Amino acid sequence: MKIYVLRIGHRPERDKRITTHVGLTARAFGAKGFILAPCDEKILEKLKSVERRWGRFLEIIECTNSPLGYVRRWKKEGGKVVHLTMYGMKVDDAIDEIKKSNPQRLLIIVGAEKVPWEYYEHADWNVSVGNQPHSEVAALAVFLDRLFEGKELYREPEGAQIKILPSRRGKEVVDAAEESRGTEEGTL
Fold it and tell me: Does the annotation list 114 as a binding residue?
């Protein structure tokens, strides 16, 4: 299943940090694409920079100024849509239904401001991660983690320049190219 995240309602003057975190969470928790509406090239460039340094997970990093049109095209092409909202069905019930439907492509809508009613209507599933106000970043992380059953956390990205080595104490960051040369040298 290919997962894409559509961030709608981004307000460039106020949402830079949280929208960047939505993109980073999408990337780290298993999504294959991030689409931003409306366009903000600075956010897209930050995500592309992370992909260059930390390795490639995302196939698509793009924007649209017509997010509802994007959703309509997605559905017309056979994709399914999840809208994360505190008014939706419980995440655990939705995950079971989504897995049973076995969608090949899943678009997850994450709103920044009040989401227009049309998105609720176009969604195949309106999903809540709790029914209390909280961060859309947290909702996306919980949803993706439940969908992938935690397996997304241990994927290895392609082409990483740097890599973190797990450590009980301190920070251990290595040059990925040096680490792979050391591994190759050790096996000769």
Answer: yes
